[in-house]
Amino acid sequence: MLCFRKIPITTKGIRLYTTVVKEQIVASSTSRNNLRKDVLNHRHVYPEFLPDPKIEFRNRLREKLERNDMLSRRTHVNIPEFYVGSILAVESSDPHSPGKPHRFVGICIQRKHCGLRAQFILRNTIDQQGIEILYEMYDPSILKVEVLKLEKRLDDELLYLRDALPEYCTFDTNMEPEILPEGSPVSINDIKVKLKPKPWLERWERKNLKGLQDLELPERFYKKAEKLATPWEKYDLMKEYMRTIPEEEQLEIFNEIDSRLEKLQVQSKKMKKRVFVKPTKLA
Amino acid sequence: MALTFSSNFARSTTIKLLGEKFAAINLTYNSNQIRERHVLNPKPRLRNPTWFTKQMKVKRDELITRENEAFIQQAVQDKYSNVTPKAEIATNVEWSPKYQRTGVIARKIGVYPLWLKTGEKIQTTLLEVLDNHVVKHYLPEEYDPPRKRPKLIVNKKHCLILGAGAGDPTLFTREYCGLFNESGIIPKKILARFFISPEATLPLGTLITAKHFQVGNTVDVRGKTIDRGFQGVMKRHGFKGMPASHGVTKTHRRPGNIGGGGEKGRVWPGTKLPGHMGNTWRIAKGLKILRMNTKYNVMWVSGQAIPGETNSICYVFDTNLPLRKPEKPVPFPTYFETGSEEVPEDIYDESIHRFDDPSLIFKEQK
């Protein structure tokens, strides 16, 4: 369902190291743990590198080939770290307007699928008209992906912005990128969105959303939502297991591509230094 | 000597007596009368092919010590570690479009998109060509098709048995392992039969790789569809069902009317009804090979509707669609390494955008 998977760090991953001789553990446990954390941090930055956990679709060779293709595409376009709620600018070439790259600025309201089919949706309001564009992450017609504001929101999907007042998803198309100091944590924007009155696209009161203001609905709507809620699902270990890739396997996957990812990061930093655009006056 | 002579004498006398008896019967027997039902084309007798033997042994607790187990494994390894083809591939025959080459056994390993140079996204299926070895070769007279019509050899093609997926010989039956004696290769889990022209014969034990096919050519893929069990008419035949509301009760997913009245007052043969869906052999025809990885023996084939689940086995062979047969020479009878030329790891079709190429930029056409 969601591309961004929150996996609780359990003792599962630690079990890997219990077989190693004890002395070694004492000597290098801290450095190793740090390394492991770094590698596992990739699952938030590059969630699409984790395969679809559905067991009937899995094949190791296919996944490996897919990852290789993703990495070789990334050498030509820098796809930076971004989350649902970040504001992005995407430049892409369009066969219907040859010679002119098309640029779109908007907030990322959803990230979905994994592997080469990874997609994200950008939303903005232009001339009082809500506009959404679904981008394929590994589409070769994408020329540039720029993060203007790196932040998270309270929810994993912001599809409710479609029913929100337009000021919540209106962003200046000439926005300047906000440059954060290196290594700073990603801030969480705890803004609460006000929705337009009904009718809505979905029954948002049933979705257990945190980034919404009071919906001002009659009591019966909340009662129904409570009746249909499944709060026990988060304790369902089996469901959690089926929905996620085990930590051992994540380690294996990211260890395999770690060196190439690092190279890409270094490359993108160099590119950043070279390109300096003088800020233009906002309209 | 004397004993045998006497017995021969006794036999000849009895035959004489029988002949007299039959002569007497023949007088009363009407030879024109036909007692049995005459069938013009008798129903073919169902028969299994010769290589269709019981594969797996019944598992028993055989009391083998660890040392002996290790010895058996060592023996298996020694026997099958360096097996070479029984003969050189005949290279003197030149390819001609009328010749039929062998196919290969492959595994469907997934579906993912590729992009064309026009910017269009297409879905492709990945087929991993397994370790195909030639197990047996049958001449048309030797090969007994499972449904044989007497005195009529329709199929004048030769037949090649390929095996893929090396297995543990200790788990297979004696007869099954015997199939591989001639070629000397390790017993394989999967066998497949391909008809070939006599010119496309391959020596036993030859390895066939993905390079047997060429990027840009068209193939057919045969596989067993996903078993969906007993299904209703909506899923099985794509019927519309009936409305969810407006007074409809208990007939939301039912077929509705299945026939007329009067003279036709019965269910006609072939009426689409609920029943078992899937688990049947189907051939997806006319699939273009768009990309190939020679290191992992993987082919990217157009389309996502290849029969079978991911990780299921399928059989890939040159297409028999008349307009999509290859015009340029293909590796014949199969690809063999000459050693001089270097094959790139990734081979793409001309229409496909490579992932390691720079981004697409559309230019104005004047």
UniProtKB/TrEMBL annotation, chain A:
<dbReference type="InterPro" id="IPR008991">
    <property type="entry name" value="Translation_prot_SH3-like_sf"/>
</dbReference>
<keyword id="KW-0809">Transit peptide</keyword>
<keyword id="KW-0687">Ribonucleoprotein</keyword>
<dbReference type="InterPro" id="IPR038657">
    <property type="entry name" value="Ribosomal_bL19_sf"/>
</dbReference>
<comment type="similarity">
    <text>Belongs to the bacterial ribosomal protein bL19 family.</text>
</comment>
<dbReference type="GO" id="GO:0006412">
    <property type="term" value="P:translation"/>
</dbReference>
<dbReference type="InterPro" id="IPR001857">
    <property type="entry name" value="Ribosomal_bL19"/>
</dbReference>
<dbReference type="Pfam" id="PF01245">
    <property type="entry name" value="Ribosomal_L19"/>
</dbReference>
<dbReference type="GO" id="GO:0003735">
    <property type="term" value="F:structural constituent of ribosome"/>
</dbReference>
<protein>
    <recommendedName>
        <fullName>Large ribosomal subunit protein bL19m</fullName>
    </recommendedName>
</protein>
<keyword id="KW-0689">Ribosomal protein</keyword>
<dbReference type="GO" id="GO:0005762">
    <property type="term" value="C:mitochondrial large ribosomal subunit"/>
</dbReference>
<keyword id="KW-0496">Mitochondrion</keyword>
UniProtKB/TrEMBL annotation, chain B:
<dbReference type="GO" id="GO:0003735">
    <property type="term" value="F:structural constituent of ribosome"/>
</dbReference>
<feature type="region of interest" description="Disordered">
    <location>
        <begin position="241"/>
        <end position="271"/>
    </location>
</feature>
<dbReference type="InterPro" id="IPR000597">
    <property type="entry name" value="Ribosomal_uL3"/>
</dbReference>
<dbReference type="InterPro" id="IPR009000">
    <property type="entry name" value="Transl_B-barrel_sf"/>
</dbReference>
<dbReference type="GO" id="GO:0006412">
    <property type="term" value="P:translation"/>
</dbReference>
<dbReference type="GO" id="GO:0005762">
    <property type="term" value="C:mitochondrial large ribosomal subunit"/>
</dbReference>
<protein>
    <recommendedName>
        <fullName>Large ribosomal subunit protein uL3m</fullName>
    </recommendedName>
</protein>
<keyword id="KW-0687">Ribonucleoprotein</keyword>
<keyword id="KW-0689">Ribosomal protein</keyword>
<comment type="similarity">
    <text>Belongs to the universal ribosomal protein uL3 family.</text>
</comment>
<dbReference type="Pfam" id="PF00297">
    <property type="entry name" value="Ribosomal_L3"/>
</dbReference>
<dbReference type="InterPro" id="IPR019927">
    <property type="entry name" value="Ribosomal_uL3_bac/org-type"/>
</dbReference>
